[in-house]
Amino acid sequence: MPIKIPDNLPAKEKLKEENIFVMDESRAFTQDIRPLRIIILNLMPLKEQTETQLLRLLGNSPLQIEVTFLHPSTHISRNTPHEHLKLFYKTIEDVQDKKFDGLIITGAPIEKLAFEEVTYWEELNRIMDWSVTNVTSTLYICWGALAGLYYHYNISKCYLPEKKYGVFAHRVVKPEVKLVSGFDEEFLVPHSRYADLNREELAAHPELEIICESKDGGVYMAASKDGKHVFVTGHPEYDACTLLDEYNRDRDKGISTQLPENYFPDNNNQYRPLLRWRSHANLLISNWLNYYVYQETPYDL
Predict the structure, then answer these.
(1) Is residue 162 among the annotated active site residues?
(2) What is the pLDDT of residues 61-92, one digit of tens each?
(3) What is the mean pLDDT of residues 168-193?
(4) Can you state which reaction this protein catalyses (predicted)?
(5) Does the annotation list 163 as a binding residue?
(6) Is residue 272 part of an annotated ligand binding site?
């Protein structure tokens, strides 16, 4: 089924090239159907790239989805044109009286900062607090997962001696959980971060459960037992070359960065990396939309 997106969103043409069924607002208006309303708080610096990555996954579901993009008004983006934000994004003030079926909070490359040092931390707190009563289920990605666990459950983060960086194999440790229905016992996910969650605190919390983890990647997926909050520490939405782009950006800035682990064929950065996690990413988003959003949300929001 299609995803409903704003007219003229740049990601539209890219998705159509990949045969992802998208429907602009003009056409969707003529259909008598109540799509799932998903709001995406996009904290990534390259917002247009992240839009395409997430819309690609949402568009693989059999459910019709209406997408709204959100950004923090208390932060000035240096990598996305102001006109793009003005055209396609809303702030919490615009949506605070509305209800949504699902919320996605992306990562952000700010793991080295204490949460309280983040310029938009108070606004993010407000958004996460609003989501408890206005959203059926929230999916938190990478830094978003660390922030969500800290805000809702006081789970602290741990700073890593070096960047956790590469594509790691993970195992399902709670196969009975619907979020991992259909998953292989082992699957790959990209990671890129300088901080991690405190596993001991997470495992001891009575309202949370660890669903997937690995020796190298650590805890990958955890969730509240009521399904309201799903935390993913990796980047299943990444394209094949996203880690490569990050690697090149770090080197251009003079940052000493190791090659991403298990990423380049034969560990040789002269070879194009292969996309080996897309099927898992599609299944994760489909399961979340189906079991944690669609089957839990009321028809009349």
Answers:
(1) no
(2) 878 899 999 999 999 888 889 999 999 999 99
(3) 96
(4) L-homoserine + acetyl-CoA = O-acetyl-L-homoserine + CoA
(5) yes
(6) no
> How far apart are the C-alpha atoms of 47 and 10, rounded to whole Å?
11
Concatenate the DSSP letters of all residues of 173-212 into one string.
Answer: S-TTSGGGTT--SEEEEEEEEEEEE-HHHHHH-TTEEEEE
Residue 120: which of 131, 108, 130 has the closest Cα? Answer: 108
Q: Which of 87-101, 121-135, 136-150, 247-261 has the lowest mean pLDDT?
A: 247-261
Counting residues of the chain whose pLDDT is more than 90, the rounded percentage is 77
Q: Is 46 left (phi over 0), alpha (psi -120 to 50) or beta?
A: beta
Rounded CA separation 263/274 (Å): 8
Dump pLDDT digits (tens) for 10-58: 776 776 676 565 655 555 444 456 789 999 999 999 999 999 999 999 9
Active site residue 152: no
| Known catalytic membership, residue 142 | yes
Task: List the catalytic residue out of 48, 111, 237, 246.
Answer: 237
Residue 270 corresponds to which tokens in the numbers above? 């002269």
Residue 251 known to bind ligand:
no
Do the beta carbons of residue 1 and residue 21 sit within 8 Å?
yes
Q: Which of 152, 229, 235, 280 is labelled catalytic?
A: 235
Q: Which residues contact 235 (CB under 8 A, 6 or more apart)?
A: 107, 141, 142, 189, 190, 191, 192, 242
Q: What angle do CA 82, 16, 104 make, to 5 degrees?
A: 55
User: What's residue 254's pLDDT?
Assistant: 87
CB atoms within 10 A of CB 53: 20
Helix/strand/coil for 99: coil
